[in-house]
Amino acid sequence: MKNILCIGAGYVGGPTMAVIASHCLEYRVVVVDINPNKIAAWQSDQLPIYEPGLDEVVRRARGRNLFFSTDLNQHIAEADIIFVSVNTPTKSFGQGAGRAADLQYWEKTARQILEISTTPKIVVEKSTLPVRTAEAMEVILNSNAKGLHFDIVSNPEFLAEGTAIRDMEEPDRVLIGGRNTPSGQKAIQSIVDIYAHWVPRERIFTTNLWSSELSKLVANAFLAQRISSINAVSALCEKTGADVNEVSHAIGLDHRIGPKFLKAGIGFGGSCFRKDILNLVYLCEYYGLSEVAAYWEQVVRMNENQQQRFVSNMLSAMFNTITGKRIVLFGAAFKANTSDTRESPSLAVCRSLLEERAEVVISDPHALENARIDLGELAQKVIFEPDPVTAVKGAHAIAIMTEWDDFTRLDYEAIYRSMVKPAFIFDGRNILDHEKLYQIGFNMYMIGKPPLIHNTLP
Ligand code: NAD
Ligand code: UGA
């Protein structure tokens, strides 16, 4: 039996290893983390993340060939293949602050592997990393006095939260990069062998190390770029009477453009798009490519602009003051079907509304606890209410922040009756039946469409 170890039991490490263990019975898969609470949760019935289908996969494999542990040293010693899936956030200090990737967790892991290992190993970059990180990893690991050889393989993860299990089960592609040396090729083959248990061979793409590392950053940059592009168009639609949903449908029918990732909204969130693009920008600047850096940076700036524009529209619609007004944010998660609130547009909007001294209420079916943590001290100023119908009582406005289905199924007639008039809905995800809500009496503001406003003058 081969031993696989994954260091980092987060959104990537946990689900990916659960799927690998469920398909590869002849591998013993252990996931370790420095956070004992997280490991305890992975060992319990209350998994630390909400992800559709995850419970079943974990239940199937856990205790059979999938284990969770805090004992890094023991499991490093036993492992043949080590996936490293620790967090690689944006650096918040020193050179490159606000842009470059903070590689401290990554490097710490490499040194720990080196210290404990007594046998050669394949070390797999699962975290998203700046291109050429593997070079540093090779130098650190192979400059040992023990005579041990480590092969570094890049195997970036493309899963999206909310669909992680499906993305792992049926990936568009699995990317594996390594050195073009006999031992590098053997290492690539070892990782191919794992995925080949359930992924058709033609979807497993092997490349050199740098192409693999860079492709991950570029994939996220392209996805985010599409969202910023359609959001930029939404601003123009609001000025011209065009409807952004119609425009995105019209352009998406061209098979060269395609329909996906063209949904205008309040901007992208999540732990990765912003950080990975800023990392790409930093790399371009590092290599003296200032025009290329500026091009990609604009994707992030446009995203910030979309959120600011949303709040400005709210303010001007509500007579230029929201001080003391109860505004209910429907959704805290950065997208539906996840409890993750990292970089959530909802929390950015919440902060701006608090600056305007509004009374902010947040309602979300799964993400309230994370929202409270992410808001830090500001959380004291926010009301967290799981029931949306209770949340809106006495409110002046509702703002749709996350596209949870739950919010489309509410009794908006009853909601309207319980709100202060004129009652406003700002649909930041364009998920509601706007005409129907307008007929009920709401003033409706959408993304990339003309608003539907009742004449409130007598
Ligand atoms: P996460 O914060 O959810 O998990 C990372 C885990 O690593 C944490 O639990 C942390 O305690 C642990 N950790 C940090 N240092 C450690 C150490 N020295 N030893 C043991 N454990 C340690 O992060 P994540 O969302 O899983 O992302 C991990 C990486 O995968 C990042 O590079 C990210 O960019 C990338 N990625 C994330 C997603 C996603 O959807 N979240 C998708 C693709 C790629
Ligand atoms: C994204 C990528 O889709 C994954 O391939 C990648 O592995 C991952 O980042 C990562 O590296 O972390 P994720 O952030 O989980 O996955 O979710 P997405 O579905 O990509 O959505 C990101 C954000 O864009 C969300 O806030 C979502 O609401 C927004 N979005 C998405 C739009 O505003 N419009 C769209 O058309 C699509």
Spatial gap, N to C terminus: 79 Å
Biggest sheet architecture: 6 strands, parallel
Mean model confidence by pLDDT:
96
Query: Which ligands, by name, code or SMILES, are bound?
Result: nicotinamide-adenine-dinucleotide, uridine-5'-diphosphate-glucuronic acid
Radius of gyration: 24 Å
Overall, the morphology is elongated
Helix-strand category? alpha/beta
Strand order of the largest sheet: 3-2-1-4-5-6
Q: Count of DSSP E strands? A: 14
Helical content (DSSP H or I, runs of 4+)? 40-55%
As an assembly, this protein is single chain
Q: Helix tally?
A: 17
The fraction of residues assigned to DSSP E strands is: 5-15%
Task: Give unreliable regions as ranges.
Answer: none
Describe the structure.
With 458 residues, the protein is α/β, with parallel strands linked by helices. Helix content is 43%, strand content 14%. The chain contains 17 helices and 14 strands. Strand 13 (424-427), helix 17 and strand 14 form a beta-alpha-beta unit. Helix 5 (104-116) packs parallel to helix 6. It is elongated and about 80 Å long. The chain starts with a strand and ends in a 12-residue tail after the last strand. The model has no long low-confidence stretch (mean pLDDT 96). The chain binds nicotinamide-adenine-dinucleotide and uridine-5'-diphosphate-glucuronic acid (UGA).
